[in-house]
Structures are given as structure tokens and as C-alpha cells.
Amino acid sequence: MRDLISKIEEKFGVIFDEEKLRIELEMRNLTVDQLLLDESLFEEFVEDILIKETYFFRERGHFEILRDKIFNKVVSKRNFIKIWSAGCATGEEPYSIVIFLFNKCKNNCRVIASDISREALEKAKEGIYSKSSLRALSEREIKLYFEKIDNGRYRLRDQFRKVEFFRHHLLNPLPTRIGKVDVIFVRNALMYFSERAKKKAIDNLKAALHNDGYLILGVSEYLIGIENDLYPIDFDGVTVFSKTPIGKPVETREENLLQVYKNLTPETMDEIMDLPNDVNGLIIKGMKFLKSGAIRNAINYFEKALELDDKIYFVHYQLAQLYEEIGDQTGFYRECLKINEMLKNRVPLSSIDVQFNLTHTVLRNFVKEAFEGMKWVLS
Fold first, then answer.
1. Are 240 and 111 part of one and the same domain?
2. 107 and 218 co-located in one domain
């Protein structure tokens, strides 16, 4: 199993929890040996489990900022805007971009989209979706942008399908034929990468971006411990990143805990376990296991940290994502509810939250997104 985990990380940059990978193998009636001996089967398997569920207008604020703020800034300088949806899965994100910019684009826009999965790209090009992909749209919006076909499926109308799809892995540079881009959407993809792969992917994304361009991550993502030279920028409460400071910067501060995490290497892992079991020590131990892909061990240490201090947003935030990763929806929503309760009670950010660049805006966006997902599940 460790050989398979290592091969997946080396080729795809993603670290899988051993238990989760074993479940995926059992669901498909496959063995480790089969995947290690058959390269095409290996790639098909990994691409399949990497396809992430998504939907139109997810984290709508990013599309509104693109339309209302970023578009005019870029076009006023270059008379053109090129937007790349990286890790686009089945196409909901790039098509959402086209829809939001539809009334502003007059032969001055180019939207490109890429994914590692051939299957996902074929579905994206088809442009046919179930009602779950449309769950963030009003009935009026569904009628405006889609035509209903058989079996509760919806086809995106032709005028909103101006996207160029191509297969690409984020661990590789963007092909030079495409040139520099102005805006990159890479949301909810890098969170599954190992730290080493994340650094490489960020370097490739920066190389593809104009110096005054914008990088947009998911609201639940942040660049912990990644030497990236990117500046967080606040646009009316929505955070994006740039290679140069633009607008109002988001306040950040680094202190000891973040520095320890950033300096974690395979050689220092054993030393970390000798740290005292105070809040800081438990959090660092949790991050150690998270960095090595041992998700359940990470959860164990974060839960112990909460027993000592349950007023640290970062720990609840981290646990929510880890619970979601292992499919524990009860744990996920419990942590989201706790974050929401703390926000309502105006609990201030702790020094640990500030170190890891969490803001009240990011946290509010995170729980809002979570509750919208919960409403859909319950309905």
C-alpha cells in the first residue's frame, strides 16, 4: 500500500490516507499489485478518485469580484482578459465564469480550462448536467442558462459554452503556446496535494500569471507554509492573491508556531513528537501527521488541542476539512456550527489564527458555503 501511495504522490502530487485508499480499491474490486503493474489502469483509477463534486456558481463571490472588480482593471490596461480555470473537473467553474462575464465580453475575453481527468473533460465538453450541479441557481437562472432535456438533465445553452478545454496537470508548466494569463481559478484542488507538490504547482501557476494578475483559491484554502511570494488582496471581503501588492492587503503575521510548521522536514518529524502536549505542541503534531498524509492521526491531535482550548478557529477549521475528507459529515458540520457560533459571539482571532492567515471574512465564507451544501443534502 505504501508503494501505491508513493507512486500516486510522485505522479499526481496527491497524498491519500491509507484507509481511504483501501476503501476506494475495495469499491472497484482492484488490488495494489494490479495498479502497480498496469500503468493505464493506475492512471484511470487515480483520475477517477480525483474527480471532485462541484456545482455552478460555487462560492459565488469569486465570480462577482471577477465581473465587478477584476475585469475592468485588467481590460483597462490590456483591452483583453484571459482566464484559466485550472482543475476544472466537469466544467461547472469555467462555464460559470462565461455566464458571469457574458454581458461584458465583446471579443475581448478568452476562457480556458484544464483538468488531469480525460473523463471529466469529456463530460465538461458535453455540457449536460444533473439538477445537483445547478443547486446554487434560482429557477429563473436555470431557465435562462439551460434547456431541460430527458431524465432530469439540463444542457447548457450554446452561447454560454465558449470555453477551450485541454488536458493538463498542475505539476507541469502551462504550455507556452497559451501564453500568460490574467486570472487563474484553482479552487479546492491544491488542498489535496502534498506540501512538495503544492509548492511545485504554485510555482507553475505563478509562472503562467501576469505580474499584475490574480490567483483565486477556494474560500476554505490557504497557503500554509508554502514559500510563494504571493500577496493576499481583499476585494470587498473576498480574498484573492497576486504576485504584486494590489489594493488593500490582508493583514498577516508570522510567529513561532507557523515557523516550526514551515521548517518541518522528514528529518525533524521525530523531534516534533518530543514537544510538550500543550496547545501549540498538539497543533504542531497534528500538522506533522497532516503533512505526512496520516489524516486520522492528525484529527486525533487536533481534537486533543480543542480539549485544552476550544476557542481557536484554526483547529475547528482544520478539523472540518479533515472530517469532510474522510466522509464524516457529522463531524464536518459540527465544526462548522462551532465556527459559526464563535463568529456570532464575536470571539476574537487567536494569535494562532493570525499566524495561519485566517480572517473573520474567510471563516464566514467557509461556514456559509458549508451551510449551503447542508441545505442541499437535507433537501
1. yes
2. yes
Q: Identify whether residues 91 and 219 lie together within a single domain.
A: yes
pTM: 0.64
Contacts 24+ apart (CB under 8 A), 21-28: 24/49
Query: Mind giving me the DSSP string for 170-228?
Result: TTSPPPGGG--EEEEE--SSGGGB-HHHHHHHHHHHHHHEEEEEEEE--TT---TT---
Residue 315 belongs to a domain: yes
Last residue within a domain, chosen from 189, 215, 249:
249
Rounded Cα–Cα distance for residues 66 and 88 (Å): 17
Helices 39-50, 118-126: axis angle to 10 degrees equals 50
CA atoms 20, 21, 22, 24: torsion sign: positive
**In this structure, are 22 and 138 located in the same domain?**
no
| pLDDT averaged over 10-residue windows placed end to end, the chain, 379 residues | 80 71 84 88 79 83 93 92 95 97 93 92 95 93 95 94 94 91 90 77 92 85 60 77 63 48 57 72 84 83 90 92 85 92 90 82 85 53
Residues contacting residue 106 through CB under 8 Å, at least 6 positions apart: none
Q: Which three cell numbers stand for residue 126?
A: 458535453
**Residue 238, phi then psi, degrees to nearest 5:** -105, 125
Regarding whether 226 and 172 lie in a shared domain, the answer is yes
